[in-house]
Design goal:
The protein has 15 helices and twelve strands. The protein is an alpha+beta fold. Strands 8-1-12-11-9-10 form a six-stranded antiparallel beta sheet.
Length: 494
Amino acid sequence: MPGILLPGAGMCQGTCPHDSPHKERIKPTAYKMKRIILILACVCGATHARAQYTYTDSIQWQTYEDFNKIFLDAKKNIYRDHSARTNAVDRWNGAAAIWCQAIFYDMVQNAYRRAVAEKDEARQSKYSTLHRKIYLGEKAQYVNFNFDDCNTNTGWFVYDDIMWWTAALARAYETFQRREYLIYAERSFCRVWYGSAKVGDDGSYADPARGLGGGMFWEWQPIDKPKPHQPGDFRSACINFPTVIAACTLHNIVPEGRKSPTAARPTQQTREWYLEKAKEVYAWADGTLVKNGRVADGIHGGGPEFNDHLYNQATYIGASCLLYQITGQDNYLLKAKKAANYVFTSMCSGGILPWESGVEQGVYAAIFAQYMHMLVYDCGQTQYMTYIKRNLQRGWDKRDKTRGISNGNFRKDTAEGSQIDSYSASALPALMLMFPAGDSASPVRSVTAASHDTRHDGIYTIDGKRVASGGEPGQREHLASGMYICGQRKMLVR
């Protein structure tokens, strides 16, 4: 039975701060050596795996359609906060939180990317159009992406709100190559990093040269007349690791050969600068906020505050995966795996993902889907698929079977007709989009050519021609893109 290349494998891909009043790779930089995707297929294993699950690819697509039917305001093309709402007016009247809108915006991109991977031209057209509508709707709602407008209704008044959008807009440029997405992604990143002359804040970056200690501050205060940051101000995981993710993504997509800007507050930077800052922020956050794979919520100046939140684990995984992909350094991958292991061994009950009640906490599982996809598919860690598919099946089983939506708590039935917030409802469709049902039979493992198993005596084309020695990794670096056979395994070289 032929293996299947999964979407994303070669594509385009204390107090919780979000309890506060404001709330809330088409082309990754390649390793020096060519990445190899090994596709493992076993007929008997495939039959067994499929027998465990009743959801299908068509069901997965339908969960996303059902989510949009209930929560997307089709007139404004932004998302409502609750199933009981008829309109998404603003923060105070029906619109989902600004930072969560970015997560929902990621979902339409993921739908398009999956359609591309599946060569589904009809869905490609559909979701490309929907993406553009949602982008324009979000832009219109949030003051035309004027990141210097800090009004607390439709504006930008917390650093992490902006940074979630930075990452989403950078991914939009990855996916659709429309320059305006890159422009806004860079403007927003630089506004967070350097602060705003109009607002008067000194930026999120806790510059060690200024005695601020390193990492990223969560907020500026007061919103209208901010004071300079102090070393003890809150530095949360939800700004630090999204900053690393955004910086890595920008490193992957900005043009090479840019000159370093000279302005005090530039609106763009060089790709080298983005990577340098990604590594710096990661080193501080990893050293300060992480212990044995467990991610603290943040630090106020004393010790880190360890309150488990799924989205913090998720962004740490994503930041680690991206740095691993860029640098090829195994320590980043090991850290990502530790974080994932902590989720499934210490935060789950019976393997089912935790659900947090609250205004916006339900969106955490959707964020987890985004970055576990990186770990599983882009970094080849398919050992987590058993847990993920268990959650997909449980979410599907516990849905409101009339409306097709879930309350996000996969341990409880979703009562038919019950009122559900969009944050919690996003968990099931986000996971469904990122982990196709058909993939259960064909796990994919990504490795560098140098780390490939060398026990077999050769690499062959599909028609049986020997093209390299299986024991000579250096030869694999020079293989043309295509499908090969190595040791009774199919091997896709990109």
